[in-house]
Amino acid sequence: xxxxxSFTLSPREYMQANKxxxxxRASTILxxxxxLQWRKFWDVDEGLKTWDPPEALAHYYPSGSTGNDKDGSPxxxxxxxxxxxxxxxxxxxxxxVVRMTIKVLEYYLDIAKTSGANNVVVVFxxxxxxxxxxxxxxxxxxxxxxxxxxxxxxxxxxxxxxIINAPAVFAVAFSVVKRFLNDYxxxxxxxxxxxxxxxxxxxREQINPEILPKYYGGDLLDxxxxxxxxxxxxxxxKVPESYYTNNFDPSDDSTxxxxxxxxxxxxxxxxxxxxxxxxxxxxxxxxxxxxxRFGITYCDNDGNESPAVRFQxxxxxxxxxxxxxxxxxxxxxxxxxxxTYSLMRNKKLFYNITVTDPLxxxxxxxxxxxxxxxxxxxxxxxxxxxxxxx
Length: 390
Description:
By secondary structure, this protein is α/β, with parallel strands linked by helices. It is 28% helix and 26% strand. The chain contains 9 helices and 17 strands. It has helices at residues 11-41, 47-50, 55-60, 85-91, 94-115, 137-153, 170-177, 183-187, 196-206; strands at residues 63-64, 75-79, 120-125, 158-164, 189-192, 233-234, 258-262, 267-274, 280-287, 292-300, 305-314, 321-326, 331-338, 347-355, 375-378, 381-384, 387-389. The strands form 5 sheets. Strands 2-3-4-5-17 form a 5-stranded parallel β-sheet. Helix 5 (94-115) runs parallel beside helix 6 (137-153). The longest helix has 31 residues, at 11-41. The radius of gyration is 25 Å and the shape is globular. The model is unreliable at 1-7, 250-255 and 360-390 (pLDDT under 50).
């Protein structure tokens, strides 16, 4: 005879359970109210539908679709490396970038509602991804704002998200991005390195080949033979400076930037000692009126010195010079602002340079697809059910 065990809630436990349900119900209601207010603020249901984005966004915001997957969910392709975020933010306001993103999402959600799927599939192509651009403060702020907006106002619309052609440096970016994503969103994300045989196979399983561009593993071509179907998927690209309307004043970020004057014929140096592996060195700086020579040297524990970032003159008086490198440890990194070539002018410098804490070792591993674990531990953080595939 099988042993059967019954569980009975005590009156106190019953009250606590009801209180928890009430709290969750109230939280859901408040979230819906907040989302309705957000939609009203951005005029999502009326004005945004007829809003015309700035020309730079209309031509260089990378995204598009060639149809729906086998279940009727719209498939959105985003050639992410084609996003010239620096050029975009010099040609349009941050608010316009948010509006454009909302407009794109709403367009595909309308298609999803019509098909009855009520969710979307997104394919991010990270080929040639450059982390340097997102170390620039305005760019990072926009990305974070978009992530927060998505999580607060578009819960559970994601059927699946495939991040393909992810370079090794993408692990650094994702370790930051995932902090703004909830467990549901993370559970829908699969990341693939630059191995088309693997990610094309996965895409073909979900998307019929006749509407899947050949570049992504399908049969679809543009009339001119373009495998990426650029007539339907905007590839983005470098925004011409003729579109530029915005100038970024370093004094706007004076609370985060340190200012100094690099004397004519002199150098200004900063040393950063890196003890722990997994750290990164980030820089963001600008000069007033004139350029400056910049570079970074690396000195190991035995005193051997070598260049970490090649020395060159940078036009930091035109746009912030930003970047990030992974650090070896133990080592000393020397950041050098070199004004020795200028015998007539001092250079006013605004800089923000930091060594990050050791980054979680979020590896894009060599796990075979069929053996991807449900949970991949990442230091003290867990990414539940997020496929990290070679």
